[in-house]
TrEMBL record:
Keywords: Cytoplasm, FAD, Flavoprotein, Heme biosynthesis, Oxidoreductase. Involved in coproporphyrin-dependent heme b biosynthesis. Catalyzes the oxidation of coproporphyrinogen III to coproporphyrin III. Residues 12-446 form the Amine oxidase domain. Its main location: cytoplasm. The lineage of its organism: Bacteria, Thermotogati, Deinococcota, Deinococci, Trueperales. This is Coproporphyrinogen III oxidase. GO terms for cellular component: cytoplasm. It comes from Truepera radiovictrix (strain DSM 17093 / CIP 108686 / LMG 22925 / RQ-24).
Length: 450
C-alpha cells in the first residue's frame, strides 16, 4: 500500500509542498485538506471589468525556487516583470510624497534626512558599535546608521512588509541578510554596495518584482490547483489531530483520515491548536507567534480622476503623519495589465499591529478612511468606479524578538514525532519566496525519509 501524506492547509505552502512531493515521489498518496471553499490561501486575485487586484502578495523577487515552481507549472510564458517605472518608491512625509533613496549612495542626497543624519549614516562603517545578540529592526538600524535613519525608514519599511512594529520585530528573523552583511563586511553599507556591484555586473539590471500576466498572483495557485486535481479537498477544516500506532489521524466535519506523515501548512495558531494533545511544548511555542490583522483595498479610477502621475511603485506612510493607511501601491503602474485602458488601479493596505482597531470599523467607515487618505495624499476626490475589499484577520505573522529561538525549539520538540513537519510563512520568512522554500524543504525532508 502506498504511503499517505496529509497536508493541512491549502495555501501556497500546502499546495506547493504537495506539488514538490508529487514531483519527487509520484507513488505517494497525497491529500491536501483546505478549510476554505477554494484552495490558495492568501495568493489569489479578483478580476472585474479589466481590473485585477491581488488579495495579498502582488509579486515576488525572481529567486530560483519560485521561478522553478512557476516554470514546472507551465507558467514560464506568463511571467512578467514590474514596469521600470516601479523602481521609484515614495514616502508620505510632512504633507507630501518624497522619493525614497533607491541605493545606498542616495542616502547622502535624500531630502528625507537632515545633513547631520546623512553624515551619521555615511559614517556607518566607522561609527557603528558591534552588538551581541538579537535586536529589533529599529535598534539595528539606529545602531548602524543613527536614529534619524531608523525614524525615517525602518518604521515605514517594516510596516510595508509585515504591517508590524519595527521596534518589536526581530531583525535577525526578518532580515537575516542584513545581519550577514554586518558580519561578513563589518559594515552594512559596504556590504550592500558590494552586493549591488556584483548583481549589476552579473545580470546587467537589478532584479525586479515578478508576477503573472492575465490574472496576477492567482495564476500560481490556480495552476497548482489544476495540477493537483482532486487530491485537494476543500471545505475541510481540520479540528483534531492524534497520533496512532502507525502515524497520525486528522479529523474534520465528521470525517477522519489516517496519514503516515503530516505537513501542517496552516497558520501557526491553527497548528498550535492541532498539536495541543500531540506535543504540548511545540503547541505552546507556536501559539505565542502573534499575527497582525490587515485589510487590502483595490480601488479602480478613471485616469483623469487621479491628479498624480503615479510614476512609481507607490508610497509608505510613517506613523504620526495624520494618515491612517499603511501604504498605497500604484498597481497599474507596476503591472499595466492590472487596469483597463484609461483607468488606474490603486491598492491600499490598512490595519496592522499599530492600528489594531481598523479591522473593527464598519466596511463603510473603513472605506471612508481610505478615501480620505487618498484625498490627502494623492488629491483623489472622485468616487472609485470599482472597489474590492479583502480583510485578513490574523493575516501576517509577527516575528517578534525571540522568534527564531521559538521556532527552533518547536521544531526540536516535533523532532520526536517522525514525519510531522511545519511549512508556511509563520516560521522562516513571511514572503512568497520564503513560503515556497519552506514547502520545498518540508517536501524534500519527507521525500528522503518516507
Ligand atoms: C496583505 C498582504 C500582503 C502581502 N504582500 C506580499 C508581497 O508583496 N510579497 C510577498 O512575498 N509576500 C506578501 N505577503 C505574504 C504572502 O502572501 C504569504 O507569504 C503567503 O501567501 C503565505 O502562504 P501560506 O500558505 O503560508 O499561508 P496562507 O495563505 O495563510 O494559507 C494557509 C491555509 O490554511 C488554511 N487553513 C487554516 N486553518 C485550517 C484548518 N484548520 N484546516 C485546513 N485548512 C486550514 C487557510 O484557509 C489557508 O488557505 C502578503 C500577505 C498579506 C496578508
Amino acid at each position: 500500500m502506498n504511503r499517505h501524506v496529509v497536508i493541512v492547509g491549502g495555501g501556497l505552502a500546502g499546495l506547493s509542498a504537495a506539488f514538490f512531493l508529487r514531483r519527487a515521489r509520484p507513488e505517494l498518496r497525497l491529500t491536501v485538506l483546505e478549510k476554505a471553499p477554494l484552495a490558495g490561501g492568501k495568493i489569489g486575485s479578483s478580476t472585474h471589468g479589466g481590473y485585477t487586484v491581488d488579495w495579498a502578495a502582488n509579486g515576488f523577487l525572481p529567486v530560483p525556487e519560485t521561478l522553478d515552481l512557476a516554470r514546472a507549472l507551465g507558467l514560464a510564458g506568463e511571467l512578467q516583470e514590474a514596469s521600470p517605472v516601479a523602481a521609484k518608491r515614495f514616502l508620505y512625509r510632512e504633507g507630501g510624497l518624497r522619493a525614497l533613496p533607491s541605493s545606498p549612495p542616495e542616502l547622502l542626497t535624500t531630502p528625507l534626512l537632515l545633513p547631520s543624519q546623512k553624515l551619521r549614516a555615511a559614517l556607518e562603517p566607522l561609527l557603528a558599535r558591534r552588538a551581541d545578540g538579537e535586536e529589533s529592526v529599529y535598534a539595528f538600524v539606529a545602531r548602524r546608521f543613527g536614529r534619524g535613519v531608523a525614524e525615517a525608514f525602518a518604521g515605514p519599511f517594516v510596516l510595508g512588509i509585515t504591517a508590524g512594529d519595527a521596534g518589536a520585530l526581530s531583525l535577525d528573523a526578518l532580515f537575516p541578510r542584513l545581519r550577514a552583511l554586518e558580519r561578513e563586511h563589518g559594515s552594512v553599507l559596504l556590504g550592500l554596495l558590494r552586493a549591488q556591484r556584483r548583481a549589476k555586473s552579473a545580470a546587467g539590471t537589478p532584479e525586479r518584482l515578478t508576477s503573472f500576466r492575465g490574472g496576477g498572483m492567482s495564476r500560481l495557485t490556480e495552476r497548482l490547483r489544476q495540477q493537483l486535481g482532486d487530491c485537494v479537498r476543500t471545505g475541510a477544516e481540520v479540528t483534531a489531530l492524534r497520533r496512532t500506532a502507525t502515524g497520525y489521524e486528522v479529523a474534520w466535519g465528521g470525517e477522519r483520515l489516517a496519514a503516515d506523515a503530516l505537513i501542517l501548512a496552516a497558520p501557526a495558531f491553527v497548528a498550535a491548536e492541532l498539536l495541543q494533545s500531540v506535543c504540548a511544548e511545540a503547541s505552546s511555542l507556536l501559539r505565542s507567534i502573534p499575527y497582525a490583522d490587515v485589510t487590502v483595498f483595490g480601488l479602480g479610477y478613471h485616469r483623469v480622476d487621479v491628479p498624480n502621475p503615479l510614476d512609481g511603485f507607490g508610497f509608505l506612510v510613517p506613523r504620526g503623519e495624520g494618515v491612517r493607511v499603511l501604504g498605497v501601491l500604484y498597481s497599474s503602474s507596476i503591472f499595466p495589465d492590472q487596469a483597463p485602458a484609461g483607468r488606474v488601479l490603486l491598492r491600499v493596505i490598512a490595519g496592522g499591529s499599530l492600528d489594531p482597531d481598523f479591522g473593527g470599523l464598519s466596511e463603510a467607515a473603513q472605506l471612508e478612511a481610505v478615501r480620505r487618505d487618498l484625498r490627502v495624499t494623492l488629491g483623489v476626490v472622485a468616487e472609485p468606479e470599482w472597489v474590492e475589499r479583502v480583510p485578513w484577520p490574523k493575516g501576517i505573522p509577527q516575528y517578534t524578538l525571540g522568534h527564531q529561538e521559538r521556532v527552533r525549539r518547536a521544531r526540536a520538540a516535533l523532532g520526536r514525532f517522525p514525519g510531522l513537519l511545519l511549512a508556511g510563512n509563520a516560521y522562516d520568512g513571511v514572503g512568497v519566496n520564503d513560503t515556497v522554500r519552506s514547502a520545498r524543504d518540508a517536501a524534500q525532508a519527507l521525500a528522503e525519509t518516507l
